[in-house]
Specification:
The complex is a heterodimer of chains A (336) and B (283).
Chain A: H1 2-29, H2 36-40, H3 47-56, H4 63-75, H5 89-124, H6 129-143, H7 146-160, H8 183-189, H9 193-230, H10 233-240, H11 245-282, H12 288-297, H13 301-329, H14 331-335
Chain B: H1 2-31, H2 33-36, H3 74-110, H4 112-126, H5 130-141, H6 145-172, H7 175-182, H8 187-223, H9 235-244, H10 251-278
Helix pairs in contact in B: 1-3, 1-10, 3-4, 3-6, 3-8, 4-6, 5-6, 6-8, 7-8, 8-9, 8-10, 9-10
The chains are: A mainly alpha (336), B mainly alpha (283).
Chain lengths: 336, 283
């Protein structure tokens, strides 16, 4: 019963948040100086031409009226038409979303693997120089944001030792047999590993730039929980039964120490997705974030609205999922 | 064990002092930029475009760290860029702190409808990708130093408000607040005289961290060509230009990047160091 109550309350607050995002972005971008319609037409267009086209996009109505029309459309799945690209916003946005999702998930996996490995190594070799070294590296990884790591990676692995691609999603000359926009997933399913390698070579550096700060956060928290667990009686018991130290950490301490880290990963994942905006720009990766920046520069109002709303849906959706999972796993909330 | 902890603290101390030293150097460079810069940062010399730094073949000793594609001196531009970076860092972080901490204190101490409103706004703000939000704001209010500062305040106040609100709630539940109330202090008096001094250490830590974040935001906005102007020497603008000519002239990217990296690292290490100093558990 309590769980159901939590669920309903969270869904309502999420809806309020999304409405707030929609209202703010809608009104803010309409204060933008510069008429997007005038920018579309060739030079020499008459005032009448501009007025006609403005009416077609509905930009001649008052802002609350526009919001109402747009809002009813959105609820029916119609996000309007992009001014610059002249295609339905929903189609454009959903076409780019897979690229961003693949990048984010790859970055998340890398962060978990690197952070997890650092925490396990740090716990196994605790109170040695190795642990100190890992701590210092994590401190640095945390201090510097993904944008700067991206630039450092471009310099080191793109220019100094050019082993990975630093721009784009895939080599443009390749023939792509894909029917979906999930290139990496589809290339793996089709067993076209040559294409998977090319995609990964493009994705590796941007994903790593996104992963480095998160890996440090995961590493720190997981190591802290592991160290606390290592003092507990049942771990000592496992040790006296003759298990090796590595085995004790892996099969006894880890399962009990992992829950706080999992909760944190969920929240941090939204920050990582937010980071894709500038990282995609930096690596000219054709995802949602790159499209968003172009839309802002071109004053493409319907497209900006669509992308911001989609980001907000992803953010709030992930947070909602984390909260509900936590509520479901936490017995105090379940029976309370 | 005790010895180990002492070692950790001393190493943290060294990092703290190194960070502080770097930031002091930056302040001096910013103050005396016109005397320190060997060239005019805006002066173009199309015949001296993309000269490499001094130790490489074909360098001109007058341009120590080389020149960009328009023949402007990289070193002088970094030196003058320090002024913009520090101005943005100090002013925007202080204003963000003021707005965020005030709202956080009010929400956490008074609770009720103030808390509901502030918390709802925080939720909405957390649903925006911050980089996209800042680009959007600059597009709306137009580029310029003032716009960048405004954008940082509008976006980042939640960083302060979230933490300070939670802290103010914890402090409000403590015994000393109850005794101050029994002693007949007014609510606002308690907030100013009792709660504020106790959350001040956290405010100082967040302020230091925010300065580093502000420097990055300025760089990101310059990178998408939405910062001050393309002529003015900013580290982000130099990085943006360096990214496009990375294969022809890596030095245009590398030197401002190193400066930015060290600056952000220093602010962050200083903030973390202060946090550990203030934290009674570690002390």
């Amino acid at each position: 019963m309590a769980l159901l109550q939590t669920l309903i309350l969270r869904v309502i607050t999420t809806a309020v948040t999304l409405l707030g995002v929609a209202v703010i972005v809608f009104f803010v971008i309409r204060v933008v100086p510069g008429n997007p319609i005038a920018m579309m037409l060739p030079p020499g267009a008459t005032a009448e031409d501009i007025a006609n086209l403005t009416a077609i996009y509905g930009l001649d109505k008052s802002i609350p009226q526009q919001f109402f029309i747009w809002g009813t459309g959105v609820l029916g799945g119609d996000f309007g038409t992009s001014i610059t690209l002249k295609q339905p916003v929903l189609e454009l946005v959903l076409g780019r979303l897979p690229a961003t999702l693949e990048l984010s998930v790859l970055a998340l996996v890398m962060a978990i693997v690197i952070g997890g490995a650092a925490a396990l190594t740090g716990t196994r070799l605790r109170e040695t120089r190795v642990e100190g070294g890992i701590d210092v590296a994590q401190g640095m990884a945390l201090s510097v944001p993904d944008f700067l790591w991206g630039l450092v990676l471009i310099l080191v692995f793109g220019v100094l030792v050019p082993v990975f691609q630093i721009s784009g999603r895939v080599t443009p000359s390749l023939q792509l047999p894909f029917v979906s926009d999930f290139y990496l997933v589809e290339s793996l399913l089709r067993l076209r590993f040559d294409l998977s390698l090319d995609l990964l070579s493009h994705m590796l550096l941007p994903a790593l730039a996104l992963a480095i700060p998160l890996a440090a956060i995961i590493g720190q928290l997981l190591k802290q929980s592991l160290k606390e667990t290592m003092h507990l009686d049942y771990v000592t018991l496992a040790r006296t039964q003759g298990y090796s130290e590595a085995k004790v950490i892996w099969s006894q301490a880890l399962p009990n120490a992992i829950l706080p880290t999992l909760t944190l990963v969920g929240v941090q994942f939204t920050f990582l997705i937010g980071g894709t905006v500038i990282i995609e720009r930096l690596f000219s990766y054709e995802g949602l974030g790159n499209m968003a920046i172009d839309a802002v520069i071109n004053r493409d109002l319907p497209l900006i609205q669509g992308i911001v709303i989609l980001f907000a849906v992803i953010f709030t959706g992930v947070n909602l999922l984390v909260d509900l999972t936590y509520a479901a796993l936490n017995p105090r909330l379940r029976h309370g | 064990m005790a010895e180990g902890r002492f070692q950790v603290r001393r190493r943290a101390g060294v990092r703290l002092w190194l960070s502080a030293a770097w930031l002091i150097v930056l302040v001096i460079v910013a103050l005396f930029a016109p005397y320190l810069a060997p060239k005019d940062p805006l002066e173009q010399d199309l015949f001296a475009g993309r000269l490499p730094p001094f130790w490489m073949q074909g360098a001109d000793a007058a341009f120590l760290l080389g020149t960009d594609s328009l023949g402007r001196d990289v070193l002088s531009r970094i030196i003058f860029g320090t002024r913009i970076a520090l101005t943005v860092a100090v002013i925007s972080a202080s204003l963000t702190c003021l707005v965020g901490a005030a709202l956080g204190l009010l929400a956490g101490f008074y609770r009720g409808w103030v808390d509901v409103v502030v918390s709802r706004f925080i939720d909405i703000w957390m649903a925006f990708p911050p980089v996209l939000f800042s680009i959007l704001l600059i597009a709306v209010i137009g580029p310029g130093l003032f716009s960048i500062i405004l954008a940082i305040v509008v976006i980042d106040w939640t960083r302060f408000a979230r933490v300070i609100r939670a802290e103010a709630m914890t402090q409000s539940a403590m015994d000393y607040v109850a005794s101050a109330r029994v002693a007949g202090r007014g609510r606002f008096g308690i907030l100013l005289r009792e709660i504020l001094p106790n959350v001040l250490p956290i405010i100082v830590v967040l302020l230091t961290l925010e300065m580093g974040i502000a420097v990055i935001v300025e760089a990101i906005l310059s990178f998408v060509n939405l910062s001050i102007s393309t002529d003015d020497p900013t580290w982000g603008g130099m990085i943006s230009e360096g990214r496009t000519s990375i294969h022809q002239a890596w030095w245009v990217l590398v030197f401002p990047l190193i400066t930015l990296f060290l600056t952000v690292l220093s602010f962050s290490q200083l903030g973390e160091g202060l946090k550990n100093r203030f934290d009674p558990v570690l002390r």
